[in-house]
Amino acid sequence: MSGSDYKWWMRISFYFDPICPWCWTTARWLMEVRASRDIIIDWRTFSLAIKNRDLSGQDRWRAAQDEGLRALRLVEVARAVSGPEVVEDIYMAMADQWHSKGERTFDLNLVLEAAGVDSVSVEVADDAAWDELIESSMAGAMEVVGEDVGVPLIVFEGSEPRGFYGPIMSPAPTGEEAAAAFDHLLGLASIPGFYELKRSRT
User: What is the C-alpha to C-alpha distance for residues 81 and 149, in angstroms, rounded to an integer?
Assistant: First the structure.
């Protein structure tokens, strides 16, 4: 992959769990970047409940992660019924409840109403049969970036997809700073041997 592969437009798969605050920050950054860079965001599901189900020490997060999984089932049903274009609006409605208003359960009826989706029942959130689609989405991400990852997770699609866990930023950059951060990340993605860049945070 090289930067020239994406000179005119770029498809980015962004993997999210709606309960993750870092996902929400990174999502806002990508939407800001979209105003100045010709990118297409493909919103993909990644369940922390599924990823962490066999890990110890997760009890304090279990209820929130399970709520995220219920929400992601709704996302996949809505995608199947109404098409992928509804996922962004659904995620925005979920983020408004969880991150902006501080609620710790999703009112999925209000989510569907806000997203303009009237062909899906909230009862699907309790149907584990939809987990297969979420797991398939996660497998697609981990095929590119490996299994030792969580969310947010970005994959630059193309003939040789490359992806990263992150970036982790707070607050989300805006304007030229947002575009510059994107350009730098894309530059790092073009280097086959680049794997990780990190510093401590509070």
Answer: 29
Tokens (6 digits) for 116: 């303009």
| Alpha carbon distance 93, 153 (integer Å) | 20
CA–CA distance, 16 with 26 (Å, rounded to integer): 10
Paired tokens of 93? 């409605």
The pLDDT score that the predictor gives to residue 82 is 95
Phi-psi region of 57 (alpha: psi -120 to 50; beta: other; left: phi over 0): left
Query: Is 5's pLDDT higher than 70?
Result: no
Spell out the residues 6+ positions from residue 150 whose beta carbon is closer than 8 angstroms to its own.
20, 46, 48, 51, 165
Contact 200, 57 (CB under 8 A): no
What whole-number distance in Å separates Cα of residue 198 and Cα of residue 196? 7
End-to-end CA distance of the chain: 34
Among residues 126, 117, 39, 40, the alpha carbon closest in space to that of 80 is found at: 117
From the list 71, 84, 8, the residue with the least C-alpha distance to 41 is 84
Overall average pLDDT of the 43-62 stretch: 88
Q: Return the structure tokens found at 70.
A: 């219920």
Question: What is the average per-residue pLDDT within 48-69?
Answer: 88
Asked if 42 and 13 count as a contact pair (C-beta separation under 8 A), the reply is yes
**Residues 71/77, Cβ–Cβ less than 8 Å:** no
